[in-house]
Amino acid sequence: MRVDRFLSNQPNISRKQARIYLASGQVSVAGKTVTDPNFAVTPFCQITLDGQPLQSQQARYFMLNKPTGYLSATEDDQHPTVMELLDHNDRHKLHIAGRLDRSSTGLLLLTNDGRWSQKLTEPDKQVAKIYRVTTANPIDPETAEVFADGIYFSYEGITTKPVRLEQLGDKEVRLTLYEGRYHQIKRMFGRFRNPVLTLHREQIGEIKLGSNLKPGHYRPLTDTEIASVIS
Ligand code: URA
Q1: For residue 52, which of 89, 160, 163, 166 sits 20 to 30 Å off, Cα-Cα?
Q2: Which residues are catalytic?
Q3: How far separated are the first and last CA of the chain, in Å rounded?
C-alpha cells in the first residue's frame, strides 16, 4: 500500500493532511524519513508520525510438529486446536499456512504474514508438499501410475495434479504433492479402497520438519527458511 493511503486510513488523518505530514518530513518508515506519497509500505513496516508509532507489528513465522488429535483451526468448541500448543504471546493474529486433518501429523506452518502464506498456497507457485503415509492394506502396484496420471474428483470437477510416489515398504510410501485438496491423500487411496492409517507431513517447499522438534513442540523459522518462500 502507498504510504499516503496508509496515513489517510488512520483515524483523524485526511488525505490532504497525510500529504502535508509527508511533505514536511514528519513521517518515517523503518527509521528513515519518507516524503514520497507513493512510497510502498507493508503491514510489517515500522511507521511513525512525529516519532509516535502508527504501526509496529512484527512479522512472525513458526513451524509446529502437529500431533494427532489437534484441529488445524484457530478455535473450536469440540476439539483442541493447534493454537493451544503455542504460548499465549505467540498465538496473537497467527493463521495456518496449509492445514492438516485432525488425525494427520507433522509440519504445520503458522504466521501473521498473509502475503507469505499466500505464496505457499498459490496454485501456480507449485510448492512441493511431502508426506509419509502408511496404509491398512499393501499398496496396489498400480498406485504410482494412477497417482502420477491424476485422479478425477467429481465433487470439485477437477483432476489432481501428478503426485510422485516413492515406495518405502509394503504399506508405506512417501508422496510429493503440488496442491492441497480437501482430504486429498485419503481420497486418492480411497480409489484403491485402501484406508490411510497415518499421514505425516515432512516438508513444505524448502522447509523441512527434521527430527529435532518433538510432537506438540514448535519453533520460529530461520531467516533462510522464511526467505525460501519469498524467492
Ligand atoms: N491429505 C489428506 O488426506 N490429509 C491431510 O491432512 C493432508 C493431505
Answers
A1: 89
A2: 101
A3: 21
Confidence of residue 230 (pLDDT cuts 50, 70, 90): confident
Q: Work out which ligand 1 atom sits closest to the CA atom of 188.
A: 3
Instruction: Name which residue sits closest to atom 2 of ligand 1, judged by CA.
Output: 183
Distance of CA 160 to the CA centre of its chain: 20
pLDDT in tens, 32-74: 999 999 999 988 899 999 999 998 888 999 999 999 999 999 9
Residues 61-230, CATH architecture: 2-Layer Sandwich (3.30)
Q: For the chain, which residues make up each domain, given as ranges?
A: 3-55, 61-230
Choosing from 82, 103, 181, 185 the residue with most ligand 1 atoms within 8 A of its CB, the one to mutate for a pocket test is 185
- CATH number of the structural domain 3-55: 3.10.290.10
**Relative to the CA of 104, which ligand 1 atom is closest?**
6
Compute, in degrees rounded to 10, the torsion defined by CA atoms 93, 106, 226, 165. Answer: -130
